[in-house]
Amino acid sequence: MTTLRFLNRPLVSILTNHLIDYPTPANFTYMWGFGSLAGIFLSLQLVTGIFLAMHYTPHVDLAFLSVEHIMRDVNYGWFLRYLHANGASFFFLSVYIHIFRGLYAGSYASPRGVIWVVGVIIFILMMATAFLGYVLPWGQMSLWAATVITNLFSAIPVVGPSIVELLWGGFSVDNACLNRFYSLHYLLPFVLVACVLLHLAVLHAQGSNNPLGVNILVDKLPFFPFFWLKDVLGWLFFLFLFSLFVFWGPNVLGHTDNYLEANPMVTPAHVVPEWYFLPLYAILRSIPHKLGGIIAMFGAILVLLFLPLLHTSNVRSSIFRPLYKKIFWLLCLDWLILGWIGGNAPEAPFLEIGQVATGFYFFWMLCLVPALGFFENYLLNLKFQSK
C-alpha cells in the first residue's frame, strides 16, 4: 500500500500542477479556450477511430463495403462514423481559430518560439493524418485525391518517381497504397498525442501568453475552478454546434462523390479536398509550374515555423499595434478567399484571384511582419526621444 501511494504521487503532482494549480493570467478571454477544445476533439478522434478500425477492412475490394457495413449493420456504427468524420472538421476549426488567435496576440514571439514551432509541427501532423484518413472510405473522391496528391511528388527532381512508387507500393494507387495509408493513419495520431503533450509541457514551463502580451503586472489565478468553468462553457457551445452537424447535417461537410465506390475508370469532374485543405489547395493550383506549386503549398505551412524569427517588433500583442491589427484582418480575409478559390474550378477568374491571394499571403508573412516591426520600433524610439 505504501508503494502504491509512492507511485501515485508523481502522477497526482503532474495533474495538480498542470490542471488545478497552474497559474493562469486573470485576463484570459474565451479565445484562449480553443486549445483545450482541440484536445477534446483529438481525444474524440482517437476513441472513435479505434472503434471504427475494429470493423474497417483495408482492401480495395472491401473498404467501401466495410464502411457501408459500419453504417448499416454495426450497432451505432453510423454514430461512430459521423462523430469521426465531423469531428475532423471541428478539430481543424478549433485549431485554425487557435492559430489565428496566436497570430493576433503575438504568441509566436520570443520567448515562446519553441511553443509555436511545436504547435506548427502538430498542425502538419494533423494535415497528414487527415489526408490519409480521407482516402480510407475508398469513394470516388478518396481515390482521385490520393492519385492527385501522390502524383505531385513526381515533380521532385531525380527522386520524385521513386517516392511516388514507394507511396503507391506499385505503379498505381491500389491495394498496397491503401494498406500503407491505413497503417500510417492509425499510427500518426499517437505521434500527434506525444507532440501535444510536449506542446503543453513547454507551454506550462514558459507560462501562458495573455491578451496584453506582457508577463508582468498581470494577476494570476489557479486554473481550477475559475478557468475550468470558463472553458467548459465554451466546450458546451461548440459541442452543441457539433451535435447539430452529427445529428441533422452529417454529410454537409463531405463531398457527394465520395459516397460512390472508387472507380479508376471514371474521373470526377472536379477533384476537391475537404474544406480545411481548400486554402492550401488554392495555393498549390495558383502556381502554373507543378514543382513550384508543391513548393508554394508546403512553403505556406513551413513559413509559420519562421515567424518567431520574422517578428521584429518590441511589442507582442495587437492591442498595442494598431497597424498590425489591420493587416491581421487582411490576412484572415485572404485565407477565406483562398478557401473559396480552392473550392472552385481551376479556371479564370478563379486562378487569377488565387494567384493574387497567394502572393499576398507570402508577402504578409515574409515582408509585412518584419517590416512593420522595424517601423513600429522606429516610431517608439522617436516617441521616447521626444520625451
From TrEMBL:
The chain crosses the membrane at residues 30-57, 78-99, 114-136, 143-164, 184-205, 226-248, 291-311, 323-341, 361-380. Residues 2-212 form the Cytochrome b/b6 N-terminal region profile domain. One of its GO terms (cellular component) is mitochondrial inner membrane. InterPro entries: Cyt_b/b6_C, Cyt_b/b6_C_sf, Cyt_b/b6_N, Cytb/b6-like_sf, Cytochrome_b, Cytochrome_b_C_euk/bac, Cytochrome_b_N_euk/bac, Di-haem_cyt_TM. The keyword Ribonucleoprotein does not apply. One of its GO terms (biological process) is mitochondrial electron transport, ubiquinol to cytochrome c. Binds 2 heme groups non-covalently. One of its GO terms (molecular function) is metal ion binding. Heme b b566 binds at residues 98, 199. A ubiquinone binds at residue 204. PROSITE patterns: CYTB_CTER (PS51003), CYTB_NTER (PS51002). Heme b b562 binds at residues 84, 185. SUPFAM superfamilies: a domain/subunit of cytochrome bc1 complex (Ubiquinol-cytochrome c reductase), Transmembrane di-heme cytochromes. Its cofactor is heme; heme b. Its main location: mitochondrion. It is found in: Mitochondrion inner membrane. Residues 213-383 form the Cytochrome b/b6 C-terminal region profile domain. It is a multi-pass membrane protein. Component of the ubiquinol-cytochrome c reductase complex (complex III or cytochrome b-c1 complex) that is part of the mitochondrial respiratory chain. The b-c1 complex mediates electron transfer from ubiquinol to cytochrome c. Contributes to the generation of a proton gradient across the mitochondrial membrane that is then used for ATP synthesis. Belongs to the cytochrome b family. This is Cytochrome b. It comes from Goniomonas avonlea. The gene is cob.
